[in-house]
Amino acid sequence: AQSVTQLDSQVPVFEEAPVELRCNYSSSVSVYLFWYVQYPNQGLQLLLKYLSGSTLVKGINGFEAEFNKSQTSFHLRKPSVHISDTAEYFCAVTLSWGLTGGGNKLTFGTGTQLKVEL
Amino acid sequence: EAQVTQNPRYLITVTGKKLTVTCSQNMNHEYMSWYRQDPGLGLRQIYYSMNVEVTDKGDVPEGYKVSRKEKRNFPLILESPSPNQTSLYFCASSIRDRGHNEQFFGPGTRLTVL
User: Fold this and answer.
1) Eight-class DSSP state of A60
2) How far is residue B88's CA from residue A81's CA, in Å, rounded to a whole number?
3) Measured between CA atoms, how close is A111 to chain B, in angstroms?
4) How far is B108 from chain A (nearest CA, A)?
């Protein structure tokens, strides 16, 4: 079975500073990877996804992530954060299409709370 | 507007009183799923449905039931709620299509069981 590890439960950062939120996954088969954001008292919104192709994926709100198969990582980065980026960020994985249960069942990490300070 | 709706958004109930949380999507999605979110545990899948009349257990199904009689609706039923089911619940839906795996989430239902 696949699993996701987000080592940092909280990441404080000053506004306009760069940030990296770490995500490592474990799977014996091919996977798809996602980052979701949850703003306070709201549902989850997709930031970006990696399905195949270029390992550098760009998402909404200036975020990007890089898929590294050898290190089984999918870290999320933003070069300059804003107060409005304060939210909880979830990394998630699903099996690649064609595999049993693949393509739909999301396994989430435990989340990283990003707190942007002035 | 394409969306997933959940009702109610907030619910306080007592142990043992049966309740249903409704979920509806207007995107004609085949796949629907329920998750619960707990601090420090992230989101965990309760049940999912690949299509009408096709449902299966997720990672934490104990104490929950679901049904999928229509494509757009996927209610979550708690026959006898207990305090350990106090949580934030999310419904999600997606199409079943190669390479298109974005799941759309509802706004969440915050359930408190006393």
Assistant:
1) G
2) 28
3) 6
4) 6
